[in-house]
C-alpha cells in the first residue's frame, strides 16, 4: 500500500513543482538597440505592464508592437519615453506552458508507477 505521507504530499509537491515552471519572466537592464522580433517583453510603467514584441530601444524612447498584433504591423507600434518606463522583463510563456504540461504528465506517470508498483498488483484487476 502507498504510504499516507506520500499520498498527502503528492498534491503539495505538484503545486510547488508547477510554480517553478512558467514564462520565466526576468528583469533586464534596458538594452541598447533592438531585441529579437519575437521576444516577448513586459514593459512596466505607471504600476502596470504591457506585453510587446518587436521592441526597439532608442535614446529617448522605447517602441514595440502589442503582442497580439503581427510583428510587422508598423501602424500598431506604440512608444513610451524612456523615463516613463519603470522596467523591462523578458519571458517566454509558450515554453513555460510546455514545461508545465511536461511536469504534470511526468508527475502523473511517476505517481502511477509508484502506486501500481507498490502493492504488487500492477494496477490490474
Q: Unreliable runs, pLDDT <50, ≥5 residues?
A: none
- Spatial separation of the terminal alpha carbons: 15 Å
How many domain modules?
2
Structure summary, number of beta strands:
7
Identify the overall geometry: elongated
The helix/strand order is: HEEEEEEEH
Mean pLDDT over the residues: 80
Give the strand content.
Answer: 25-35%
The class by helix and strand makeup works out as alpha+beta
| Computed Rg | 22 Å
What is the overall number of helices? 2
What does this structure look like?
By secondary structure, the protein is α+β, with helices and mostly antiparallel strands. The chain has 2 domains: 1-22 and 96-125; 25-91. 34% of the residues lie in helices and 29% in strands. It is built from 2 helices and 7 strands; from the N terminus they run H-E-E-E-E-E-E-E-H. Strands 1, 2, 3, 4, 5, 6 and 7 form a 7-stranded antiparallel β-sheet that branches. Strand 4 and strand 5 form a beta hairpin. Helix 1 runs antiparallel to helix 2 (93-118). 8% of the residues are buried. The mean pLDDT is 80.
Features:
7-stranded antiparallel beta sheet, alpha+beta, 2 domains, elongated, 125 residues
Summarize the structure.
With 125 residues, the chain is α+β, with helices and mostly antiparallel strands. It contains 2 helices and 7 strands, in the order αβββββββα. Strands 1, 2, 3, 4, 5, 6 and 7 form a 7-stranded antiparallel sheet that branches.
Fold blueprint:
Blueprint lengths: L3 H16 L6 E3 L4 E2 L5 E6 L2 E10 L3 E6 L11 E4 L5 E5 L1 H26 L7
Antiparallel strand pairs: 1-7, 2-4, 3-4, 3-7, 4-5, 5-6
Helix pairs in contact: 1-2
Amino acid at each position: 500500500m502507498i504510504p499516507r505521507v506520500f499520498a498527502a504530499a503528492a498534491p503539495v509537491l505538484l503545486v510547488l513543482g508547477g510554480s517553478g515552471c512558467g514564462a520565466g519572466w526576468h528583469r533586464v537592464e534596458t538594452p541598447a538597440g533592438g531585441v529579437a522580433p519575437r521576444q516577448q517583453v513586459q514593459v512596466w510603467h505607471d504600476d502596470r505592464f504591457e506585453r510587446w514584441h518587436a521592441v526597439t530601444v532608442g535614446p529617448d524612447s522605447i517602441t514595440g508592437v502589442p503582442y497580439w498584433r503581427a510583428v510587422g504591423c508598423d501602424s500598431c507600434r506604440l512608444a513610451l519615453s524612456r523615463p516613463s518606463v519603470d522596467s523591462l522583463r523578458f519571458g517566454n510563456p509558450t515554453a513555460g506552458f510546455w514545461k508545465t504540461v511536461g511536469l504534470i504528465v511526468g508527475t502523473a506517470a511517476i505517481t502511477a508507477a509508484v502506486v501500481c508498483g507498490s502493492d504488487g498488483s500492477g494496477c490490474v484487476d
